[in-house]
Each structure stands twice: as C-alpha cells, then as structure tokens.
Amino acid sequence: MPTAEKVVIMARYIFLMGLALVFFGTPGLAQDRSMLITQGKQFFFKQGCYGCHTVGKVGTPIGPDLSHVGAEYSLPYLAGWLRDPASQKRTAHMPKIELTEEEMQSLAAYLSSLR
Ligand code: HEC
C-alpha cells in the first residue's frame, strides 16, 4: 500500500509528465499536421479535384475557387463535405468522391490550410 506521501509524489510525477507532453508533444503534432497538409495537396491533384476547382492560379474553374476555403469553413465541415457533399448541402452538385479515410483527413487538413 502506498503511503499518502508516495501518492503525492506520484501525483506530482504524473502532473509533470502531463506538462512535458503538452510542451514537447505540440511541436510533434504541428509536424504531423504539416505532413498531412503536404499529403493532402498531393491527393488534391491525384484525385482530380483540380479538374473542377482552382487554388490560386492552378486548376479548372468549374466548381468554386478554393484558394481561401479554410477561412470560410471549419475543418469538421470540410471533412464532412469530402465524406459526402450532399450531407452538408442537400443540393450539392459536387459528386461524392471515393476517398480513403487517410485521403479524406489529409485533404481536409490541406483545404483547411488554404486561407
Ligand atoms: C466534377 C467536378 C468536381 C470535382 C471532381 C470536385 N469538386 Fe468540389 N465542388 C464541385 C462543385 C460544382 C462545387 C459547388 C458546390 C455544390 O456542389 O453545390 C464543389 C464544392 C466544393 C467545396 C465547397 C466549396 C464552397 O465554397 O462551398 C469543397 C471544399 C470542394 N468542392 C472540395 C473538393 C475536393 C477536395 C475535391 C477532390 C477530392 C473536389 N472538390 C472535387 C465540383 C467538383
């Protein structure tokens, strides 16, 4: 049985580990995010999104320009849109595109970075 003192020491230890995670874990997350964005950008071309959308000067202006789409919509909305456009907007003209979960997450991160 741990004594009360040991419990306090353990609680402090756990607290400090938590703090360390907050401070040292965040740059790792930021790096994951930038990797997701880079990947998403590749999928944007691989999946033919640019065939209907423009980002900056690249692409085809059939659908809306996505250069600032990250400033207009939240990340969950964008992910939901990619999962099934009609679920966000009943009258959506954009076809549902078959994407893996990984493609969807990275595309959403990429779109969200366009501000
Ligand atoms: C066949 C053409 C077509 C393709 C391919 C296409 N889209 Fe679209 N997309 C549209 C159209 C049209 C809209 C306008 C909204 C609607 O459907 O009513 C749209 C809307 C969007 C929107 C919402 C923008 C807004 O301002 O409302 C996002 C985000 C988007 N598309 C992302 C993508 C991504 C990412 C891909 C590739 C996986 C993609 N689209 C592929 C035609 C297309």
Show the helix and strand layout.
Elements: H1 4-46, E1 54-55, E2 58-59, H2 69-72, H3 75-83, H4 85-88, H5 101-113
Antiparallel strand pairs: 1-2
Bound molecules: heme C (HEC).
Heme C binds next to helix 3 and helix 5.
Brief overview:
The protein is mostly helical and 115 residues long. 63% of the residues lie in helices and 3% in strands. The protein has one domain (4-113): Cytochrome c-like domain (Cytochrome Bc1 Complex, Chain D, domain 2, Orthogonal Bundle).
Task: Give an account of the 3D structure.
This protein has 115 residues and is mostly helical. It has one domain (4-113): Cytochrome c-like domain (Cytochrome Bc1 Complex, Chain D, domain 2, Orthogonal Bundle), CATH 1.10.760. The protein has 5 helices and 2 strands. It has helices at 4-46, 69-72, 75-83, 85-88, 101-113, and strands spanning 54-55, 58-59. A two-stranded antiparallel sheet has the order 1-2. Helix 1 (4-46) packs across helix 5 (101-113) and helix 3 (75-83) crosses helix 5 (101-113). The protein is elongated and about 70 Å long. Bound molecules: heme C. Heme C is lined by residues 44, 47-49, 51-53, 62-64, 66, 69, 78, 81-82, 85, 89, 92-95, 97, 107, 111.
